Amino acid sequence: MPPRTNKQTQRRVNSVEALARREICAAGRRLRELGFLPAAAGNLSVRLGDGTILATPSGVPKGELAPRQLIVLCMSNEPRSARRGRGNGGTQTAALRERSGQARVSSEIQMHLRIYALRPDVRAICHAHPPVATGFAAAGRALDRAVLGETAILLGAVPLAPFGAPGTQGLPESITPYVPRANAILLANHGVVAYGEDLRTALQRMELVEHCARVTLVAELAGGARLLSRAQVEALVAARPRYGFAPLPPDAVRWLTAEDV
Ligand SMILES: [Zn+2]
After folding, report:
1. Which domains does the chain have, with CATH numbers?
2. Ligand 1 center to residue 190 CA distance, Å?
3. Residue 166's pLDDT is what?
4. 62 vs 25, 43, 50, 59, 181, CA distance in Å?
């Protein structure tokens, strides 16, 4: 096959970005329909092939976004247009803000940038406030009890990061120890962040976290969950590659099993 010309490469980059824009808007609608994004809460992002990040803006309901409203950031957390525009007065940044009305970067994007920096395999992140999982986070409880076989395979144990105020370095700092060891994290007194190799995976993990929280809650109301044994959990985790999932890291957050309680 002949090598790609610069024009062809640029066209491909543009079409990847256009697709990611549509996917983020669809994911925002889905999370909003599920009741995971009250008011203008939450944020979503995708790492593009050129190392930049496509992210939702602050202050806008994420179920009502149009593709053109999304912001492209470089890893240093500034709009790409600002970086490019330094030499010409940054006019593109001004144009972007005007066009989208209120294309402000979310203060919580620092959390996304920290995850991308720590996990080269991650290409998409969802942050939302699903009510039952957030209730567990507010109660100071991780979702690490081996209640469901499917979450052992599909998700992994979900740790609880201590409270870090949004808009401060406290938020990215609070999740840092858990990012390499889990695929989703409860944020104390706040919400949930889930991530994966693509947006579909990150979204599924967010849904699984809330499902796990609901089932755990109901099991407790019904008299207490009977946890899987350590051997059962190990067999489920070992089966991940059979389902097409990468093995969990050796120091993955540990499930609490029947032997632990
Ligand atoms: Zn939040």
Report:
1. 6-260 (3.40.225.10)
2. 6
3. 82
4. 7, 7, 25, 9, 28
